[in-house]
Amino acid sequence: MGVKRTERKRTGLWTVQSQSASKSVKVYTCPGCGLEIAPGIAHLVAWRADDIMGEENAVAARRHWHTHCWRVEP
């Protein structure tokens, strides 16, 4: 996985990490557009950095996003 960074969105603080195409081996559904992220497609993984239940809970609830969808998400 790529380097972790923290980003502020309208919904709070998020930890974001890039997923390279070579490491993307499963099908995911992007919560931004509802479309599939196919294996072999580079994308982002995001989870709440400010989850009140702690980091372990936040990581378990992480979601995979198309890079474009994450950028346009408010």
Secondary structure blueprint with pairings:
Layout lengths: L3 E6 L2 E8 L8 E2 L6 E2 L5 E6 L6 H6 L2 E3 L1 H6 L2
Antiparallel strand pairs: 1-2, 2-5, 3-4, 5-6
Number of helices: 2
Total beta-strand segments:
6
Percent in helix? 10-25%
Question: What is the total number of structural domains?
Answer: 1
Strand percent estimate: 35-45%
Walk across the major sheet and give the strand order: 1-2-5-6
Give a concise summary.
This protein is an alpha+beta fold and 74 residues long.
Structure, explained:
This protein has 74 residues and is an alpha+beta fold. The chain has one domain (4-72). Helix content is 16%, strand content 36%. It is built from two helices and six strands, in the order E-E-E-E-E-H-E-H. The chain has helices at 55-60, 67-72; strands at 4-9, 12-19, 28-29, 36-37, 43-48, 63-65. The strands form two sheets. Strands 1-2-5-6 form a four-stranded antiparallel sheet. It is globular. The protein starts with a strand and ends with a helix.
